[in-house]
Amino acid sequence: MEELKVEKAIQDIYPDDIAWCYGCGRLNDDGHHLRTGWHGDKTITIYTPESKYMGIPGFIYGGLIASLIDCHGTGSAALALHRKNGHEIGDGAEPPRFVTANLNVDFLKPTPQHVPLKAIGTVEEIHPKKWKVETEVYAQDTLCARGTVVLVVMPSTFLNKND
Ligand SMILES: CCCCCCCC/C=C\CCCCCCCC(=O)SCCNC(=O)CCNC(=O)[C@H](O)C(C)(C)COP(=O)(O)OP(=O)(O)OC[C@H]1O[C@@H](n2cnc3c(N)ncnc32)[C@H](O)[C@@H]1OP(=O)(O)O
């Protein structure tokens, strides 16, 4: 299989105050540190879950797959709006902030443990503050899950809730 690596991830440039997400915050020591970047005109997150994230031995727990699709969606929408605003990772501009309004997951096939999972996203703008990301999760070449995430630009009510 083609060896893939996410070189530049949107989570690498989240400001410190929003870099704590359990799924994708680089500052959360206990989290998954999911990283999402461009892959042509699609988006990609690559992640190999640790052994403890099992459902049935040998297979990944579905909630972890939902988390992957969730944070991949947030990161993908942030990448797309950042680019629409004329910015790319590394130009010093702060990326937009999104929260998840809706998450739907179809679990299509059992997802094996101990292989890198590849989430590939297609981003669609509904309007400037509302985006949709269709994600396919592959284990090697097998399509194991498909998800749809609706993202909304973070309302200011999320700020200063640090406890
Ligand atoms: C818990 C902490 C999270 C912090 C995140 C900080 C962001 C930092 C950014 C990056 C860091 C990385 C963080 C990654 C995080 C991973 C992703 C998550 O897990 S986020 C957490 C789970 N999500 C929530 O906790 C949202 C809770 N819900 C809300 O705050 C509101 O309900 C919200 C913002 C979603 C909608 O706010 P309204 O209801 O006041 O606003 P109205 O104007 O009515 O809706 C805006 C648009 O959203 C649609 N919408 C609302 N709910 C929907 C739904 N369930 N399904 C589809 N669309 C929905 C509406 O139809 C409307 O669309 P129309 O503008 O009319 O076209």
TrEMBL record:
It is a peripheral membrane protein. One of its GO terms (molecular function) is hydrolase activity. It is an enzyme of class 3 (hydrolase). It catalyses: (9Z)-octadecenoyl-CoA + H2O = (9Z)-octadecenoate + CoA + H(+); decanoyl-CoA + H2O = decanoate + CoA + H(+); tetradecanoyl-CoA + H2O = tetradecanoate + CoA + H(+); octanoyl-CoA + H2O = octanoate + CoA + H(+). Its EC number is 3.1.2.2. It comes from the Bacteria. Coiled coil: none annotated. InterPro entries: HotDog_dom_sf (IPR029069), THEM4/THEM5_acyl-CoA_thioest (IPR052365), Thioestr_dom (IPR006683). SUPFAM superfamilies: Thioesterase/thiol ester dehydrase-isomerase (SSF54637). Residues 58-142 form the Thioesterase domain. Pfam families: 4HBT. Keywords: Apoptosis, Cell membrane, Cell projection, Cytoplasm, Fatty acid metabolism, Hydrolase, Lipid metabolism, Membrane, Transit peptide. It is found in: Cell projection, Ruffle membrane; Cytoplasm; Membrane. Belongs to the THEM4/THEM5 thioesterase family. This is Acyl-coenzyme A thioesterase THEM4. It comes from Lysinibacillus capsici.
